[in-house]
TrEMBL record:
Gene Ontology biological process terms, A to Z: mitochondrial respiratory chain complex I assembly
Complex formation: Binds calmodulin. Interacts with NDUFAF3.
Natural source organism: Molothrus ater
Pfam assignment, any one: UPF0240
Assigned GO CC terms: mitochondrion
Region Disordered: start-end pairs: 17-42
PANTHER family to which the protein is assigned, alphabetical: NADH DEHYDROGENASE [UBIQUINONE] 1 ALPHA SUBCOMPLEX ASSEMBLY FACTOR 4, UPF0240 PROTEIN
Identification of the protein by name: NADH dehydrogenase [ubiquinone] 1 alpha subcomplex assembly factor 4
Length: 179
């Protein structure tokens, strides 16, 4: 339906609009740059003669020039494979929890997987005396400074359930009757 409506408006008065555009005066073109006029002058015989004429003074100067070229010695760059790792990274097996199907199996040392991060944050939250920053750093091969930042700035979510009494208190409230 929408296509029909747009087609009607698009085709409305097409012939008159087309004839109006055709009857308009053509706009004058922008003036050309003077370098474009040189192409027209290149056809003249004086310019061709000037181009083909040899200048003896320039020829003698050209004969005095002696060019000797030598390739520089080939150097091998030390960092030739910058996009490739220069040494093999040490990897460690992850401490798989109950979500082992979602976790990666090997992680570079100094890093942790997402499941490990959630596990260590939860362990620290539940038992902060046992899971201290030093123990977490030793357990997961991390730096102590990074573990302290992780424990300070990342907190796992807590699920809170409201007691049923408060729900009853809300539902037991009877609305006032309007008189």
């Amino acid at each position: 339906m929408g296509g029909r409506v747009t087609r009607v408006f698009r085709n409305f008065n097409v012939e008159n609009r087309a004839s109006r555009e055709i009857s308009k005066e053509k706009p004058t073109p922008a003036p050309r740059h003077r370098t474009a006029r040189l192409d027209a002058m290149a056809d003249s015989p004086e310019i061709k003669e000037e181009v083909l004429r040899k200048d003896d003074r320039f020829l003698t100067l050209l004969k005095d020039v002696y060019v000797e070229s030598r390739d520089p010695p080939v150097r091998v760059k030390d960092g030739g494979g910058e996009h490739l790792p220069s040494k093999q990274e040490e990897k460690r097996l992850t401490k798989l929890g109950h979500l082992e199907g979602l976790d990666v199996k090997k992680v570079p040392k100094g890093k942790i997987s997402l499941v490990e991060a959630l596990t260590l944050l939860n362990n620290h939250k539940l038992q902060p005396q046992i899971w201290t920053a030093e123990k977490i750093a030793a357990e997961y091969s991390l730096e102590l400074k990074e573990v302290n930042s992780l424990l300070e700035f990342f907190i796992p979510f807590t699920v809170q359930e409201f007691p049923k009494e408060s729900k009853k208190a809300i539902t037991s409230h009877k609305p006032k009757k309007l008189t």
